[in-house]
Amino acid sequence: MEIRDKVAVITGAASGIGSAVCEELARREAKYIAMV
């Protein structure tokens, strides 16, 4: 899945799966990541 230059909103990003998803999106160069 192409993530580069996409916008993502992640809920529950403080720990666990949400945190891992945020790290992976950043690694794949998502344009903006909103952690709610």
Could you state the order of secondary-structure elements as H and E? EHE
**Overall mean confidence score, pLDDT:** 91
Instruction: Indicate the percent of residues in helices.
Output: 25-40%
Strand content: 15-25%
Largest sheet: 2 strands, parallel
Give me the secondary-structure category: alpha+beta
Silhouette: globular
Name the poorly predicted regions: none
| Strands, count | 2
Radius of gyration using CA atoms only: 9 Å
How many separate helices?
1
> In which order are the strands of the major sheet placed?
1-2
Total tally of structural domains: 1
N- to C-terminal separation?
A: 23 Å
Concise summary:
It is built from one helix and two strands, in the order E-H-E. With 36 residues, it is α+β, with helices and mostly antiparallel strands.
Could you walk me through the main structural features you see in this protein, from its secondary elements to its overall organization?
With 36 residues, this protein is α+β, with helices and mostly antiparallel strands. It has one domain (1-36). Helix content is 33%, strand content 22%. The chain contains one helix and two strands. The chain has one helix spanning 16-27, and strands spanning 7-10, 32-35. The protein has a two-stranded parallel sheet. Strand 1, helix 1 and strand 2 (32-35) form a beta-alpha-beta unit. The protein is globular. The mean pLDDT is 91.
